[in-house]
TrEMBL record, chain A:
The keyword Transcription regulation does not apply. The lineage of its organism: Bacteria, Bacillati, Actinomycetota, Actinomycetes, Glycomycetales. Residues 501-539 are annotated as: Disordered. Keywords: ATP-binding, Nucleotide-binding. This is ABC transporter. One of its GO terms (molecular function) is ATP hydrolysis activity. Residues 507-517, 528-539 have a biased composition (Acidic residues). PROSITE patterns: ABC_TRANSPORTER_1, ABC_TRANSPORTER_2. Pfam families: ABC_tran.
From TrEMBL, chain B:
CDD domains: TM_PBP1_transp_TpRbsC_like. It is found in: Cell membrane. This is ABC transporter permease. Residues 1-12 have a biased composition (Low complexity). The lineage of its organism: Bacteria, Bacillati, Actinomycetota, Actinomycetes, Glycomycetales.
Length: 539, 427
């Protein structure tokens, strides 16, 4: 399919999100679209997919102008889209979500079997592993993203695939896989529009690159362009992609986790005897494939989950039995990984979201009432300091671009005193300029003596920031290594393949009975645990 | 979906041709009128309800129906009979609810008092008063994402609480009345907190537990009225002792006529609406209620306690419903409370809250409308079927709850930000 956009413009009220965009996607081409947060990329894609109606301009498919009344029309025309924000029905199974809108039915009766088979076919064809019967809302975000991709690919005759930041929540291995899938699809004639803030990916797959800034096309680049060229085209100034940081000066322990165990509702030990220390003035990077207990660890530190055993001490105090509010008040900063669910209230205004965890403290609260002028002032300051692109502080967060919503959370956590910070995927979906900014803020934070636990599935981010790297696998720390440890070593730790081939029988521990639950990897896991103890000795 | 997105397309290009020029006021206004925003949907729902109500009046009237048997021979018979029936019915409702035209004539002739003129309005306000409280009770909970279907039970306990303090204590009026009102609020709050606590601790859905608690309250009332402590000493039927003179809710307009029943509870109701507005939009507690109502995950992550928000919100809502009960038991004056005193005000509060879109101002307006329908229908019977008030209420709420229906019937445009529907989360 050859797609051509002519002068496409979208206005929201008086604000122009996309301004006279021209763009051509040739058949079988992978066309990357780059741009800052709020540049108008998602808006452009939503017009292509029939979700938004262009204010003016034309969309031509194979030379014919088209007007989509809704996504149904776009799908019928052979366009598939993976949205930046998941559009899955939480309580439905994977199979049901994938067949949504094109149900497999005979005489009005849904065929569960056909739906499952369709999922299995697609996921096998493209190597995207999925359990068709899993309930979507129970799945980790990375897996949910996979559901979205399978859904977009299982359209009747998808000839143009729109991928709006599909890799933001995927693991490195999944990304490599996805890029390969994209190449295969393109080779078979499918055109792909690809949005990503990760320039390396763009370099790796794109045939051509369009850069938009503040709604306008500002550059067309070749994939041979360097990361720095791309970054400066996006942001309009030179961006340093390297984080400047001096060696850490670790002080006293700000987070001490000992023997932490969390058992999920399903009875699985998602965090399994985990031990971890983060000191003041250091950033500890927690590397690991998503779904290995990071979420539960973070939520236990905040106090949203009551651990089944073990202790957590923040700033030297055992926090057992204290509420999240008390921990936040005592200086715990928390950037949650799932921003739409846990980070912001999308119906609330930007200003309200900026004080979401401080609305009860002075100066935002005055004798039981919210002090509107203090809230407004805080909002104005944060919007300026963190360059949050919004039409006004009273705009609901739902109208912000993904990266700007993330900046709201970052601004909230950075604008109050804190002793220890949990940052889970802090730059997920954030553009290079803002990533640079957030990274330097995290380092500055460390230098003021805050302890930082950086949870990231992106090794690049871990390498850029961490003073020490802990690798989590199956709910345990399987290794603590220096930041100059080679990628392969960490990569193998992350998937549970042990570096040191420890052959001796695993020592009998209290988890002997439980080894049946984590089946084949149990032995490697135990060995890794030994290794961790060895490493941990010098703490 | 497709119609939703097509609609704005039609009018956007022209907005684009003249980007500098500001559209005239009349154009903006006309555009507002043809848009399915919440104000216009409400107005159109009312108009549609009266239209459909008219059809049902025609269908249910035997004489008018008979004129339709020879419709093709003499259509003017059927049409004029229909027109007069509908017109007269709605005039009768209007006269019972707002202003009686024949009283107006008598008043201008000097044979009626000014107070007589106000009687329909007083009736409207009297019926509206409990609805303000119960509407607020449901609306407040809505904002926390809770569906408080239990206002009826909370109101019954409020009624009993106020009644007991009203007759059992011996106090001067300055103390007695306020104390009785507070007792009503507290009793309602305690009963309202129960589904909140159950939800917070066990996850039991508030709708289910509230329905059960409503039944418990209704049956408890029947039993309680029969007990020696509450039962009237002078009458044998199922009626309680009256409250002391010092605890009776004073009438507002008694100086203008003894038949003007509207009392001070109305003022308390308006004050409660103002309080609820402040609570929701200005207070830190309201911030928490709205946050939890929109997204409990993000609220919990920000350190808000979800369970205690549910409990407190339900308690405050129960307190508001309890005030409705206090207004009733302290308002009936010397006659005492029966099983009929509570009517269905608690359930009607749900429709009031829906119509008022869970906004305190809207709730007061909706309560006034429903009070007027009730007063009108009661005074217009038997000429007009008394069910017309319930019927109109039901149709109004049906349309309000399904704005897409109104939009489709009248071909309205989708407003920026989409259609507004009120929903309770957590199903
Ligand atoms: N429905 C809306 N109403 C008003 N403004 C909107 C709406 N949707 C998007 N915008 C604004 O349009 C601009 C472009 O948003 P868009 O989501 O397209 O950005 P983006 O390039 O995808 O950014 P990101 O990389 O952060 O996802 C933003 O400034 C956003 O605030
Ligand atoms: Mg986007």
């Amino acid at each position: 399919m050859r797609l051509e956009l002519k002068g496409l413009t979208k206005k929201f009220g008086s604000f122009t999100a996309d301004d006279d965009i021209d763009l051509v996607v040739e058949p079988g081409q992978i066309h990357a679209v780059l741009g800052e947060n709020g540049a108008g990329k998602s808006t452009l894609m939503n017009m292509l997919y029939g979700i938004l109606t262009p204010t003016s301009g034309e969309i031509l498919i194979d030379g014919e102008p088209v007007a989509f009344g809704g996504p149904g029309d776009a799908i019928a025309a052979g366009i598939g889209m993976v949205h930046q924000h998941f559009k899955l029905v939480g309580p439905f199974s994977v199979a049901d979500n994938v067949q949504l809108g094109r149900e497999h039915a005979t005489a009005g009766v849904l065929s569960a079997k056909a739906a499952r088979k369709a999922v299995l076919d697609v996921s096998e064809e493209y190597g995207l592993k999925l359990d068709p019967d899993a309930i979507c809302e129970d799945l980790p975000v990375g897996v949910q993203q996979r559901v979205e991709i399978v859904k977009a690919l299982s359209g009747p005759k998808t000839q143009l695939l729109i991928l709006d930041e599909p890799t933001a929540v995927l693991t490195p291995a999944e990304i490599t896989e996805l890029l390969q899938i994209m190449r295969n699809l393109a080779a078979a004639g499918t055109s792909i529009l690809f949005i990503s803030h990760k320039l390396k990916e763009v370099q790796a797959v794109a045939d051509t690159i369009t850069v938009i800034r503040r709604g306008k096309v500002v550059a067309e680049l070749e994939p041979t362009a360097s990361e720095a060229e791309m970054a400066s085209a996006m942001v309009g100034r030179a961006v340093t992609l390297q984080v400047d940081k001096s060696p850490a000066e670790p002080g006293e322990a700000r987070l001490e986790v000992q023997d932490l165990t969390v058992v999920s509702d399903a009875g699985v030990k998602v965090v399994d005897g985990l031990g971890l220390t983060v000191r003041s003035g250091e950033i500890v990077g927690l590397a690991g494939v998503e779904g290995n207990g990071q979420t539960e660890l973070a939520r236990s530190i905040l106090g949203l989950i009551k651990p089944d055993s073990g202790t957590i001490a923040i700033d030297g105090k055992d926090v057992h039995g204290t509420s999240p509010a008390a921990r936040i008040h005592d200086g715990l900063g928390y950037i949650p990984e799932d921003r739409g669910r846990d980070g912001v209230i999308s119906e609330f205004s930007v200003a309200e979201n900026l004080v979401l965890n401080q609305y009860r403290n002075a100066p935002f609260s005055k004798r039981g009432a919210v002090n509107a002028s203090a809230v407004r002032k805080q909002a104005a300051d944060s919007i300026a300091e963190f360059d949050i692109r919004t039409q006004s502080p009273d705009e609901p967060v739902s109208s912000l671009s993904g990266g700007n919503a993330q900046k709201v959370i970052i601004a909230r956590e950075f604008s109050r005193p804190r002793r220890f910070l949990v940052a889970a995927q802090p730059t997920r979906g954030v553009d290079v300029g803002a990533t640079e900014f957030i990274h330097s803020r995290l380092v500055a934070e460390r230098d003021t003596g805050t302890g930082v636990l950086l949870i990231s599935s992106e090794l690049d981010e871990i390498y850029a920031l961490a003073d020490r790297i802990a690798v989590i696998y199956n709910g345990r720390i399987v290794g603590e290594v220096a930041p100059d440890t080679p990628r392969e070593v960490i990569g193998r730790l992350m998937v549970g393949a042990d570096i040191a081939p420890v052959q001796e029988p695993a020592p009998v521990e209290d988890d002997a009975g439980e080894s049946s639950t984590d089946e084949p990897s149990a032995a490697a896991d135990d060995a890794a645990a030994n290794d961790e103890e060895a490493n941990g000795g010098d703490r | 979906m497709s119609t939703d997105t097509q609609a704005p397309a039609a009018d956007q290009p022209d907005a684009d041709e003249t980007p500098e020029q500001k559209p005239s006021f009349m154009r903006l206004f006309g555009r507002y009128l043809t848009e399915a925003n919440s104000v216009m949907v409400t107005i159109y729902s009312l108009l549609l309800a009266f239209f459909i109500g008219g059809i049902l009046l025609i269908v249910s009237d035997e004489y008018v129906r008979s004129t339709y048997t020879y419709f093709f021979a003499r259509p003017q018979d059927a049409l004029s009979a229909s027109w007069y029936l509908v017109r007269d019915s709605y005039i009768a409702l209007f006269e019972g609810a707002i202003l009686n035209l024949s009283t107006l004539e008598r008043y201008s002739a000097g044979t009626a008092e000014f107070g007589d003129l106000l009687r329909p309005l007083s009736e409207t306000l009297t019926y509206a008063t409990p609805l303000i409280f119960t509407g607020l009770a449901v609306g407040l909970a809505f904002r926390a994402g809770l569906f408080n279907i239990g206002a009826q039970g909370q109101m019954i306990f409020g009624m009993l609480g106020a009644l007991i303090v009203g007759f059992a204590l011996d106090l001067p009026p300055v103390l007695h009345l306020p104390l009785a009102v507070i007792a009503g609020a507290l009793a309602g709050a305690a009963f309202g907190a129960v589904p909140g606590v159950l939800k917070a601790t066990t996850g039991a859905h508030e709708v289910i537990s509230s329905i059960m608690l409503n039944n418990i309250a209704a049956l408890f009332l029947v039993w309680a009225i029969g007990t020696e402590f509450l039962h009237s000493e002078t009458k044998s039927d199922l009626i309680t002792k009256p409250v002391d003179e010092s605890a009776v809710m004073p009438k507002l307009l008694s100086s203008l006529g003894e038949s003007l029943r509207v009392n001070w509870a109305l003022i308390i109701g308006v004050a409660a609406a103002v309080f609820t507005w402040w609570l929701l939009s200005r207070s830190t507690f309201g911030f928490r209620i709205r946050a939890v109502g929109f997204n409990e995950h993000a609220s919990a992550t920000a350190g808000m306690r979800i369970g205690s928000t549910y409990t407190t919100t339900m308690a405050v809502a129960g307190g508001l419903a309890g005030l409705a009960g206090a207004a009733l038991s302290l308002g009936v004056g010397s006659s005492g409370v029966t099983t009929n005193t509570a009517l269905e005000y608690g359930f009607d509060g749900i429709t009031v809250a829906l119509l008022g879109r869970a906004n305190p101002g809207g709730i007061v307006a909706a309560a006034l409308l429903f009070g007027a329908l009730k007063a009108g229908a009661l005074s217009a019977q038997p000429d007009v079927p008394v069910d017309i008030s319930t019927l109109l209420q039901a149709i109004i709420v049906l349309f309000i709850a399904a704005p897409a229906l109104v939009k489709a019937i009248l071909h309205l445009r989708t407003p920026r930000g989409g259609l507004v529907t009120l929903e309770a989360k957590g199903w």
